[in-house]
Specification:
Blueprint lengths: L2 E5 L12 H9 L5 E7 L2 E8 L7 H9 L3 E4 L10 E2 L3 H22 L9 E4 L9 H5 L5 E4 L3 H15 L4 E2 L11 E4 L12 E4 L10 E7 L3 H4 L8 H12 L11 E4 L2 E4 H18 L1
Length: 285
């Protein structure tokens, strides 16, 4: 469980100006802080909309205690004393990597590329996501890992070899990833050109390194989207649902669209690019 702190939405002024009656009403009767328990995905979070001042009665205080004092704050809203942030940047990154992993395997499967032609490049500089090798090997018999921390990967690679009979390859330099069908990048580091291999990256900002980078994944989960409080970061909200509400289905989501420069790219577009790259590679051979 967790709690969100955001500001109450003020009524829209007419013609750009606040009516004199509304100004007087706000002075005489400032908006009160509201507390609401929101049921979601077999759990709940507490939605606090801050009014004139933040104060809680006994019942509302119990709601806050149930959140374990873990909170998300809207932009411009300070974290109240006694609370901790519900998720870190690392938690958000881990969620994005899992979602992009499922997105990558879905795109590869949708491309109808024969299994023996498939190759996934997994770019994980810090070696933090080795557990995903088992997910990737189910969709591609060849997985190439580029990491600066191979030692952390060896145990996962040994497990994949034992259970699936597929040896994990380790790339000494990123240029060798150019023969991959697509790449999954967890670190967001600039790379030498492996264009036109689609790179699904968990970096939250565009990296201009000449590659075909796909970033800022977007997905839809209507029950959650309908209750995100105003000003709360969407990625942080979903990460908190997984980490604090134990909503395991979050890590199984797939992105329906991503950004590529100034364009919105859909999953079928990525699948088409994968198939096109393979057909051109066959002509070259």
């Amino acid at each position: 469980m967790f709690v969100t702190f955001s500001f109450q939405k003020e009524p829209e002024p007419q013609n750009g100006r606040l009516h004199i009656k509304d100004r007087i009403r706000r002075l005489l009767k400032p908006p009160q802080t509201t507390f609401e328990r929101v049921e979601l995905l077999d759990s709940f979070f507490t939605d606090v909309r801050i009014g004139a001042r933040l104060c809680a009665d006994e019942k509302q205080e119990r709601l806050l205690r149930q959140s374990c004092r873990m909170a998300l704050c809207a932009e411009g809203c300070e974290l109240p004393q006694g609370f901790r942030f519900a998720v870190s940047d690392g938690d958000i990154l881990r969620m994005l990597v899992h979602i992009l992993c499922h997105t990558a395997t879905e795109a590869l499967d949708s491309s109808n590329l024969p299994l023996y032609c498939r190759c996934i490049a997994f770019i994980d500089p810090h070696g933090a996501h080795g557990a995903l090798l088992e997910q990737l090997i189910k969709f591609s018999p060849e997985v190439i890992v580029y990491t600066e921390n191979r030692r952390l990967y060896q145990g996962y690679a040994d497990k994949v070899l034992e259970e699936y009979g597929a040896p994990i390859q380790f790339a000494e330099n990123p240029q060798s990833l150019a023969r991959a069908s697509l790449a999954l990048d967890t670190g967001g580091i600039p790379l030498p050109s492996i264009y036109p291999v689609p790179i699904l990256t968990a970096c939250l900002e565009e990296i201009a390194d000449g590659n075909l980078r796909l970033w800022q994944p977007d997905w839809r989960l209507e029950p959650a989207d309908a209750v995100i409080p105003p000003g709360i970061n969407r990625y942080a909200f979903y990460a908190a649902l997984h980490d604090r509400c134990k909503a395991r289905e979050i890590y199984r989501l797939r992105a329906s669209t991503l950004r590529c420069k100034n364009r919105i790219v859909h999953l079928p577009d990525i699948a088409s690019q994968i198939l096109l790259n393979q057909s051109q590679a066959l002509i070259v051979r």
